[in-house]
């Protein structure tokens, strides 16, 4: 009884497992059981099922294990599979029963009445006892042929060419979809990489765009500054041309008047009857403009002698005034020489001495606490000095270009006016110094840019030209730095003054070296170069004075424009100097 119960329990468990198999698993198991049954009925068959390459190794191993089952165990397994086929595929089993004899069909119906009830009980409880063992022994023996037919039909149905073709088509379809998905994934990866590269390129382009916009803004500001500078220069050139035109017209009128006077004198000479009358007329004619030169020289000497007391403990050093007096005497000597162009060479000493005087004033303004009113007054005196110096330079140019035919009094009057302005500057600065604080605030020392040639070597023209080219680069860099400070800063300190001093120091050195070389030559182009050096000296002195003024009036737009214009003039004159050196 116990053994019978164990068999029933094992059979019930096996049937439950068959019910839990999916379609594919059940098809494989039923096919393997059918193949094993065919092998057992074949007397010449192998002792176990052969290995098939199209099956999984574990399935081949399970197929071979079927040969180890005893006949009863294998019969029970085949019976359970038959019932499960009947449950899963009722239409197949029905067609087989119709082909069976009537006696076998009656047995099948009787067995079918009991089997559903037993199958229903196994669904409710896997351990519930059943009568399956009692009912299953008979079908296993009587329905061997039915099982063969049933398994053959099932195998044929499940492994038919149409099913296999559908399966292969489905596999091919799925493989195609997988390939398409893989290709799509690759395309997406490539697109993603391309997008990342585009994003990186976009970031780079945005950065380059920002840099270019900043550079464009800087260039635009520089262009506007240069445009304004060019506008100012054009205006100044137009004024100079107008002034030159007026001077030429005046010169023509003077020449016409001179010719008229000479004609009158000639006629008077012819009409004189006696030597006394001729002498009388001759003495009235023989008045040379140069006779005024000694009086002008003496007057200037007297003016400067009268301020000797003001030079003691004053702002302007006595040696600077003595240098100015020597420069005045050189100018008057040049005027009386046979070469009128020598006045241009002498004018250089005048300009340098005036610049040294304004340097003393600038140093005084930087190192002492000066009231605003007094500072403004000094600025006005320096402006008067610059204007008087400009007038003198114009008179000297007219005298030189006219080969001594220009009126001499204009030159002497300009020289006296300049001297009077310097005297006012000496006296006023000393008075302001005495009234100012005795505890000056010391600032960074102002560099001495006077000529200091450590070597007596005079450069040849090629050497001088190369020397000027080398220093031109320094001038350009310094001017660019100066213009940048003017645009960016609203207040100016000693650093700005150092830039100005650096430019004027280089220009002073160029002027001194050029003059030394020029003095050693006897060339036809000397007057042209002397004119350039004179203009360069004037612009250099103007830049130095404007630099001092910028420190005291940092918000003055006019002073900024004048500094830019003077810087441009310096660069232009240096360029012309290089071009004229042959």
Automatic annotation (TrEMBL):
<dbReference type="InterPro" id="IPR022018">
    <property type="entry name" value="GIT1_C"/>
</dbReference>
<keyword id="KW-0677">Repeat</keyword>
<dbReference type="InterPro" id="IPR013724">
    <property type="entry name" value="GIT_SHD"/>
</dbReference>
<feature type="compositionally biased region" description="Basic and acidic residues">
    <location>
        <begin position="96"/>
        <end position="125"/>
    </location>
</feature>
<feature type="region of interest" description="Disordered">
    <location>
        <begin position="94"/>
        <end position="147"/>
    </location>
</feature>
<dbReference type="InterPro" id="IPR056439">
    <property type="entry name" value="VBS_C3G9"/>
</dbReference>
<feature type="domain" description="GIT Spa2 homology (SHD)">
    <location>
        <begin position="14"/>
        <end position="44"/>
    </location>
</feature>
<feature type="region of interest" description="Disordered">
    <location>
        <begin position="255"/>
        <end position="297"/>
    </location>
</feature>
<protein>
    <recommendedName>
        <fullName>GIT Spa2 homology (SHD) domain-containing protein</fullName>
    </recommendedName>
</protein>
<dbReference type="GO" id="GO:0005078">
    <property type="term" value="F:MAP-kinase scaffold activity"/>
</dbReference>
<dbReference type="Pfam" id="PF12205">
    <property type="entry name" value="GIT1_C"/>
</dbReference>
<feature type="compositionally biased region" description="Polar residues">
    <location>
        <begin position="126"/>
        <end position="147"/>
    </location>
</feature>
<dbReference type="InterPro" id="IPR039892">
    <property type="entry name" value="Spa2/Sph1"/>
</dbReference>
<dbReference type="Pfam" id="PF08518">
    <property type="entry name" value="GIT_SHD"/>
</dbReference>
<feature type="domain" description="GIT Spa2 homology (SHD)">
    <location>
        <begin position="62"/>
        <end position="92"/>
    </location>
</feature>
<feature type="region of interest" description="Disordered">
    <location>
        <begin position="435"/>
        <end position="458"/>
    </location>
</feature>
<feature type="compositionally biased region" description="Basic and acidic residues">
    <location>
        <begin position="447"/>
        <end position="458"/>
    </location>
</feature>
<dbReference type="Pfam" id="PF23742">
    <property type="entry name" value="VBS_C3G9"/>
</dbReference>
């Amino acid at each position: 009884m116990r053994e019978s119960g164990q068999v029933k329990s094992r059979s019930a468990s096996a049937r439950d497992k068959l019910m839990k198999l999916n379609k594919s698993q059940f098809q494989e198991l039923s096919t393997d059981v059918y193949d094993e049954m065919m092998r057992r009925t074949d007397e010449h068959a192998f002792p176990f099922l052969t290995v098939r390459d199209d099956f999984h190794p574990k399935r081949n191993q399970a197929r071979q294990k079927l040969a180890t089952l005893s006949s009863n165990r294998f019969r029970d397994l085949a019976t359970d599979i038959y019932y499960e086929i009947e449950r899963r595929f009722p239409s197949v089993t029905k067609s087989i029963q119709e082909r069976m004899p009537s006696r076998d069909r009656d047995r099948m119906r009787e067995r079918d009445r009991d089997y559903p009830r037993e199958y229903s009980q196994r669904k409710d409880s896997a351990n519930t006892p059943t009568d399956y063992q009692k009912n299953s022994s008979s079908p296993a023996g009587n329905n061997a042929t039915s099982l063969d037919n049933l398994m053959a039909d099932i195998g044929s149905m499940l492994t038919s060419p149409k099913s296999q073709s559908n399966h292969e088509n489905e596999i091919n379809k799925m493989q195609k979809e997988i390939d398409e998905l893989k290709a799509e994934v690759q395309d997406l990866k490539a697109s993603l990489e391309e997008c990342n590269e585009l994003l990186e390129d976009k970031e780079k382009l945005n950065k380059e765009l920002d840099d270019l916009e900043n550079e464009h803004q800087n260039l635009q500001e520089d262009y506007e500054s240069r445009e304004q500078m060019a506008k100012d220069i054009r205006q100044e050139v137009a004024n100079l041309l107008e002034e030159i035109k007026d001077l030429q017209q005046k010169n023509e009128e003077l020449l016409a008047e001179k010719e008229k006077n000479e004609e009158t004198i000639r006629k008077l000479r012819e009409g004189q009857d006696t030597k006394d009358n001729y002498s009388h007329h001759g003495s009235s004619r023989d008045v040379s403009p140069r006779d005024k030169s000694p009086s002008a020289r003496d007057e200037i000497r007297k003016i400067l002698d009268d301020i000797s007391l003001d030079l003691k403990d004053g702002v302007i050093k006595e040696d600077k005034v003595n240098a100015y007096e020597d420069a005045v005497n050189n100018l008057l000597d040049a005027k009386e020489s046979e070469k009128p162009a020598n006045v241009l060479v002498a004018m250089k000493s005048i300009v340098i001495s005036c610049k040294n005087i304004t340097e003393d004033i600038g140093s005084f303004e930087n190192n002492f606490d000066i009231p605003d009113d007094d500072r403004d007054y000094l600025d006005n005196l320096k402006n008067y000095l610059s204007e008087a110096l400009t007038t003198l330079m114009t008179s000297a140019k007219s005298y030189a270009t006219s080969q001594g035919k220009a009126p001499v009094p204009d030159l002497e009057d300009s020289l006296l006016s300049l001297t009077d302005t310097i005297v006012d500057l000496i006296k006023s600065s000393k008075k302001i110094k005495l009234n100012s604080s005795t505890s000056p605030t010391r600032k960074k020392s102002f560099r001495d840019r006077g000529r200091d040639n450590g070597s007596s070597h005079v450069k040849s023209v090629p050497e001088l030209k190369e020397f000027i080219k080398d220093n031109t680069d320094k001038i350009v860099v310094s001017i660019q730095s100066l213009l940048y400070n003017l645009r960016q800063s609203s207040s100016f300190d000693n650093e700005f003054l150092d830039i100005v001093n650096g430019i004027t120091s280089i220009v002073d050195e160029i002027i001194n070296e050029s003059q030394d070389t020029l003095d050693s030559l006897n060339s036809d182009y000397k007057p042209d170069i002397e004119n350039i050096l004179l203009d360069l000296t004037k612009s250099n002195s103007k830049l130095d004075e404007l630099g001092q003024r910028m420190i005291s009036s940092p918000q003055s737009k006019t002073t900024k424009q004048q500094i830019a214009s003077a810087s441009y003039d310096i660069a232009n004159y240096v360029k012309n100097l290089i071009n004229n050196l042959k």
